[in-house]
Amino acid sequence: KARETLRNGALSALLRRAVLQARSALGPALDKATGTLLYNAAARLKDPKHLGFLVGYIARKEILTDLQLSAALEYVRSHPLEPLDVADFERACGVGVCITPEQIEEAVEAVINKHRAELLAERYHFSMGLLMGEARSQLRWADGKTVKNEVDLQVLHLLGPKTEADLEKKPKVAKARLAPAEKQKVAVVENGDMGTETKSLLEQLRGEALKFHKPGENYKTEGYVVTPNTMALLKQHLAITGGQVRTRFPPEPNGILHIGHAKAINFNFGYAKANGGVCFLRYDDTNPEKEEEKYFTAIREMVEWLGYQPYAVTHASDYFDQLYTWALELIRRGQAYVCHQKVEEIKGHNPPPSPWRDRPVEESLLLFEDMRKGKFGEGEATLRMKLVMEDGKMDPVAYRVKFTPHHRTGDKWCIYPTYDYTHCLCDSIENITHSLCTKEFQARRSSYFWLCNALDVYCPVQWEYGRLNLLYTVVSKRKIIRLVETGAVRDWDDPRLFTLTALRRRGFPPEAINNFCARVGVTVAQATMEPHLLEACAREVLNEQAPRAMAVLEPLKVTITNFPAPKALEVLVPNFPADESRGFHKVPFHQTVYIEETDFREEADKGYKRLAPGQPVGLRHTGYIITVQNVIKDVSGRVIELEVTCTKSDVAEKPKAFIHWVSVPLACEVRLYERLFLHKNPEDPSEVPGGFLSDLNPDSLRVVHNALVDSSVRSARPFDKFQFERLGYFSVDPDSEEGKMVFNRTVTLKEDPGKA
């Protein structure tokens, strides 16, 4: 432990200070209990300025137990401003409280009498921890070991020594099952696989589950910077919010949301929902060169498609006037300056310091005004903040010149704020309590706190979580644009992509995407998942949601020569065979039906169970079995039609198989999708040296132009979903027209073992 501590320079220095202070009061020899308390105080104290204060209590033997120390640490964390109220501190930490053995004996006796009947019934299988907890709750500052010894002694006196029956393990009681609406499997991500702990997303996000601070208790967060104005600002913040949790989802409107954003949406909106709060949808529209109206519309559509309703829809541009005013104030406070270094000069981690860093405040104010008036060209001047970020980046840019009209403010501005400047201040304006973002923004946490404090405005807390990535795909805007430009995909919503619009078009239900995010869990570590795990979530939802229909992709005509009626019969097909209470639909059954080419063979191999000469099959839902009488071929020898006879299934021998079919069908186009890329990591040069465009799967899309589907789907609309029996789950594509429906295969009925 000592060697481990020495490797931590900061902890070693604090511990040395604590030991030297204690020795000055107690002499050179410190007992083990005192040493342990000193170590824990040095290791667990968030703000070293209180170390001497706490060590004084330990040295004077006024803090004697770890329980008291924990209370003391919590007190100084909850009271960041000086001076501390000593009397209140001592009350909170049990200083001077003396618990006698008689008090412990009486408290334990009262608890045992309360649970006497259960103890006698369950004996040593009863939870002794419950007795301990209740006794400790009555005597908060009692020594834990002494309480435990007294519990053990009194239980032994009541029950006597343990018998063989007492030593047997207590049988486990099955846990009550969660209601389906709450139930989602979740969590541990290990090498792309998931465990099977059952927990809903809301359970993962509710209350203390994430160890997040409570609204108004920002200062309890490790690394949060407390200033003389912090407590007053938090008081104002609570007066506005009423202690409500407030989060925000802040996308840039310069591209379409992808599967990684689904986790961010679920986390931000879900955390607010789970804790009775609200979530803003705020567009980070600070770069007018790349923003388009279609992205604003698509982002909101996707948020609502996933089942979330924003508390308010805002834009960073709503606050441009306030942000500009604050920029002037930052300059006046000597915390920002106008710089003329070129973009290339300040790129990277070790750029040269700006020669303009110490220019006079008045000069920077005049130059910043010139920037606003358009007197500098693009790249000729920036406003930079005076700070060093965690990653070593020095003086990040706050404003830059861009002569591009803004979609909302028009030509009013030719200077636009950066993310580093805008984000935390917009959070402050909206009184966000928890600013949730992915781990790559951790390097910006110090600048987040610094900027709010430099302007003396309310400072929210930034919390980071791990990104969600999928294998066999790319999600960067630049790469998707290249795929569209080269014709590899049709657009942002091509069903082979993992943008949210693409997943919707392919037929993935929003519940499946939300369930997938819940299964990945709210992890701090980055999660890289296999697509088949998302597909498994889709199958679970679609099995419950998608009504059954029948379709034939490669039709083979079958004529029933002894059809039992002069015209088509109507067959009732259950929408959900496992639950017929959910209704039926009618399909025509005519003398001419169509089956899959692959459901017929001229010779039945061993193990082949479907239609062949001499081997009849049942037609699903009809109550009839068909037997081949004649095989008709074209001039090339290809089978083009079968003539069969039918027999009622209740009088014939049960066939080896039942196959799907269509009769009086609708013509349709079916699009069958596979992975877009051949390798797991198409962007990894070690895996794909030629770049991601060289890794395209030539078989990622197969279009079946002349498929047939039963007429029950005639009135379906785009995005309606069906299970085509024996084939998979399919969704109606927006390309569908009158007389020619188009279906996208979402997933097959079962996972392809080769993909897992």
UniProtKB/TrEMBL annotation:
Glutamyl/glutaminyl-tRNA synthetase class Ib catalytic domain location: 244-543
One Pfam family per UniProt: tRNA_synt_1c_R2
Domain Glutamyl/glutaminyl-tRNA synthetase class Ib anti-codon binding: 546-646
Residue stretches making up the tRNA synthetases class I (E and Q) anti-codon binding domain: 658-733
EC number of this enzyme: 6.1.1.18
Name the record gives this protein: glutamine--tRNA ligase
Keywords: Aminoacyl-tRNA synthetase, ATP-binding, Ligase, Nucleotide-binding, Protein biosynthesis
Domain Glutaminyl-tRNA synthetase class Ib non-specific RNA-binding: 1-144, 147-235
Catalytic activity: tRNA(Gln) + L-glutamine + ATP = L-glutaminyl-tRNA(Gln) + AMP + diphosphate
Lineage: Eukaryota, Metazoa, Chordata, Craniata, Vertebrata
Family statement: Belongs to the class-I aminoacyl-tRNA synthetase family.
InterPro entries from the UniProt entry: aa-tRNA-synth_I_CS, Gln-tRNA-synth, Gln-tRNA-synth_Ib_RNA-bd_2, Gln-tRNA-synth_Ib_RNA-bd_N, Gln-tRNA-synth_Ib_RNA-bd_N_1, Gln-tRNA-synth_Ib_RNA-bd_N_2, Gln/Glu-tRNA_Ligase, Glu/Gln-tRNA-synth
One Gene Ontology cellular component: cytosol
GO molecular function, a single term: glutamine-tRNA ligase activity
